[in-house]
């Protein structure tokens, strides 16, 4: 039985990889205004919400065959797709409600939206006129949101056989939904990098900015870092930051026989090495974890820490500036959430300062890492 399930999962993985979705990014230079005030952040936010909602509404008109063709899949989980769509609509309504609070200061993209029917109506007829100040943004944004929606729908179509961050298995899993409007949590995956590498630069940069983040570390990389420097050096590396777990190796924890040992071994190492930095959070590599793992995590006193703003800064995906612009666009769309970068990648050293500079006057807040997921 276990072998049959494993083979089934492998086939689904191959199916998922057969027609990968292009990673979405949007050149923020197409938007004609800088985000130099909370009101201008809201204008851009309303625009991105309406554009995404327009694409989401259009996708609901696709029948099963057309949806499979669009996503490049032979088998799809329609129930999971429907669940995701409902969640997306609810989030969009909540976000637009927040974004329209500044309409008296700037009425751009302000429409009467008091309930879900209003939002769906406005999304259906949303368009940017040819003589609009924002016309240069319209087509690139439409393209971005179509590609981004496909990313989300594809993951839902494969859920739960291939788990991901688009859906939760229970209350022990958190994804930033509980954050307040305009609040964001910075997280980094896959570290630590080699001595004097990207992790060193990022933690130093964050301290200079008087900020912190949650670094989800791999046990094997952390142990190697200690061996090649010292325990004191590693403690200094993460001074003022939070350190969570990503397992012993960067591999899927959904079909790995030793997944529990991977987590407990890493937890022991981090707790012993950096008890003041340790936070009881597990970030599943690739977002993949077991559907029946809630009991284990509760027994270990751990929560699964997912995300909703993916920088796509891994090798072979977006360039550093494209990664930053993707993050900025998703911050405008979702208005709060958990941002994930990889501190083993050079791209984060370019992308993160770009994001902070672009939003410095937007009235945003950065969640204290120890207060997140409580």
Outline the fold blueprint:
Elements: H1 2-18, H2 38-59, H3 64-71, H4 78-99, H5 116-124, H6 135-158, E1 173-174, E2 183-191, H7 198-208, E3 214-217, H8 219-228, H9 231-237, E4 242-245, H10 259-273, E5 278-282, H11 294-300, E6 303-305, E7 309-310, H12 320-334, E8 337-342, H13 347-359, E9 365-366
Parallel strand pairs: 1-6, 2-3, 2-8, 2-9, 3-4, 4-5, 5-6, 7-8
Organism: Pseudomonas salmasensis
GO molecular function: hydrolase activity
EC number: 3.-.-.-
- Structurally, the number of domains stands at 2
Query: What is the name of the CATH class of the largest domain?
Result: Alpha Beta
Shape by Cα distribution:
globular
Do you know the CATH architecture of the largest domain? Alpha-Beta Barrel
Separate helix tally: 13
What is the terminal separation in angstroms?
Answer: 38 Å
- Low-pLDDT residue intervals, each spanning 5 or more residues: 1-19
Q: Which structural class fits the helix and strand makeup?
A: alpha/beta
> How confident is the prediction overall: mean pLDDT?
94
Question: What order do the SSEs take from the amino end to the carboxyl end, as H and E?
Answer: HHHHHHEEHEHHEHEHEEHEHE
Number of strands: 9
Task: Provide the helix percentage.
Answer: 40-55%
Domain NodB homology: 182-369
Pfam family, one: Polysacc_deac_1
GO molecular function: hydrolase activity
EC number: 3.-.-.-
């Amino acid at each position: 039985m276990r072998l049959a399930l494993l083979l089934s999962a492998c086939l689904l993985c191959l199916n998922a990889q057969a027609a990968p979705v292009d990673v979405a990014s949007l050149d923020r230079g197409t938007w004609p205004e800088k985000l130099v005030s909370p009101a201008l952040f809201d204008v851009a936010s309303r625009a991105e919400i309406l554009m995404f909602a327009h694409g989401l509404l259009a996708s609901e008109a696709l029948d099963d065959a057309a949806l499979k063709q669009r996503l490049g899949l032979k088998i799809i989980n329609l129930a999971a797709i429907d669940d995701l769509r409902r969640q997306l609509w609810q989030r969009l309504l909540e976000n637009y409600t927040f974004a329209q609070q500044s309409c008296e200061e700037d009425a751009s993209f302000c429409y009467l939206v008091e309930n879900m029917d209003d939002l769906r109506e406005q999304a259906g007829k949303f368009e940017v006129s040819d003589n609009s100040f924002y016309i240069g943004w319209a087509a690139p944004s439409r393209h971005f949101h179509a590609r981004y929606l496909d990313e989300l729908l594809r993951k839902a179509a494969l859920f739960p056989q291939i788990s991901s961050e688009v859906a939760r298995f229970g209350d022990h899993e958190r994804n930033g939904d509980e954050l307040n409007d305009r609040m964001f949590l910075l997280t980094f995956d896959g570290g630590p990098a080699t001595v004097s590498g990207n992790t060193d630069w990022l933690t130093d940069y964050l301290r200079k900015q008087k900020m912190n983040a949650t670094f989800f570390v791999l046990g094997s990389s952390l142990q190697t870092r200690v061996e090649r420097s010292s325990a004191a050096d590693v403690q200094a590396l993460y001074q003022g930051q939070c350190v969570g777990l990503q397992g012993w190796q960067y591999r899927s924890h959904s079909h790995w026989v030793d997944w529990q040992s991977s987590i407990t071994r890493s937890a022991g190492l981090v707790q012993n090495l950096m008890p003041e930095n340790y936070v009881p959070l597990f970030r599943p590599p690739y977002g993949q974890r077991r559907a029946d793992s809630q009991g284990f995590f509760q027994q270990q006193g751990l929560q699964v820490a997912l995300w909703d703003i993916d920088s796509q800064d891994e090798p072979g995906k977006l360039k550093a500036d494209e990664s930053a612009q993707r993050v900025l666009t998703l911050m405008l769309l979702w208005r709060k959430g958990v941002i994930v970068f990889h501190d083993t990648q050079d791209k984060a050293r370019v992308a993160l300062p770009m994001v902070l500079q672009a939003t410095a006057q937007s009235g945003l807040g950065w969640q204290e890492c120890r207060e997140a997921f409580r």
